[in-house]
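Pipeline run #58 for the internal structure catalog. This entry was flagged by the ingest filter as a single-chain record with no existing model, so it goes straight to prediction. Upstream metadata was stripped on purpose; only the residue string is passed forward. Reviewer on rotation: M.T. Logging verbosity set to normal.
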Amino acid sequence: MASGDWVTVGIDNGGTANNGTVLDSEGRFLIDTMAELPSLVREGPDKAISQLVDSFDKVLGITGVSREKVRAVGLDTPGPASADGVLATGGATNFGHPDWSRFNIRAALEERLGIPVLYNNDGNAAALYAHYVRHGSDAENRSSVSAIVGTGFGGGVVYDGRIIKGAAGMAGELGHMPIPVYGVLEPGQPMPSCACGQVGDAESIASLTGITRNLLPYWLSRYPDHELAGVDIAKAAKQVRGYAERGDEMALAIFKQQAMAMGQVFSIAAKFTDPDTYFVGGGVIEAAPHFRDWFVATVKEHTKFYVEQSEIAEITLVPDLDMAGARGSAIAAATWVRNR
C-alpha cells in the first residue's frame, strides 16, 4: 500500500496530439485544462516516443512537480493493441507507419522514462475516468459500461472499479460486437459493413465511418434531392450532425439508427455485467443540448432492461471527454501504485 506525497502522470496519445495530466496521491488533478503537444504518430515510433517524453516533461513543468515524485505513468492510445501495449499487426489508422506493427509502445516509453508505465486503450481510459467521476469513493464497489462514438466506436467495461481487459486485451471492444439489426435497419436497407471485415456490428452503424460507408449512401437514396446529395460523401458525413441539430429529417433518421444501435449494445451489456451506469460519449456530447438530450433519450428508449434493472440503471454522459483519456490513464496508474 503506497502512502505519502507522490503523483502519477497520465498521457492520452492521439492521432494528432498528446494530452497530459498529473494526479496527486489525494486524488486531485493538478491540471484543469488541456496540456497538448503534437503526437507525430504518423512519423513513426522514434519521433512519437520522443513526443510522449516531451508531454511528460510538459505537465511536470506546468505543475512544478519534481520527477522524483512520479511513481507511475498511465498511457493510453487508440486500439487495437494487447493488454500490455503491443500494437496490433497493421496498427490502427493512427499507426499506419510500418514500424508500428507489433510495436510495444508501453515498454518503449517505460525504457525512455525509467518509470513504470501502465497501458490502456483510449476507450478504456475514458471509461475508467467516467466511472470514478460518477461513483467517487464508492467506485470500487460499482460497475459501468461506456460507449464512445467518433470515427469508430470505442468502449470500456469497468467492474468493481477495474477495467476489464481480457486475455488478449480486446475486452470492451463494443464497436466490433455484432448486434441484432432487426428493427434498427429499414426494410430493404443493405446490411452495413465495417472496416474490420464484419457486417452488422455496432461500429458499422454508430460511427462516423458507419455514416460514410453505410447510412448516408442509403438515406441519400431515399432523399435524392437533399442538399448533401451533391457533396463528396466523406465531407457530407461530417456535416450530418449539423443538419440533425437543425432538425433535418434525413439527418435525424441517421442519428436515430445510431442511437438504436447503441441501445442494442447496452441491452447486451445488461445481460453480461448488469452495470450500475451506462455512459454515452463521443461527438454527440459536443452537440447542441437539445439534440444531445434527444439522442440520449433515444438510446434509453431502445435499451432493453428487465424491470428490476430499469429501476436502478442510469444512462448518462461521459464527463470532460477531451480530458477523460489522460485522466483515466492517471487513475489507472494510481490504482496500480496503491495496490503494489
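catalog note: Residues 249-272 form the longest helix (24 residues).
catalog note: The longest strand covers residues 17-24.
status: ready for reviewer M.T.
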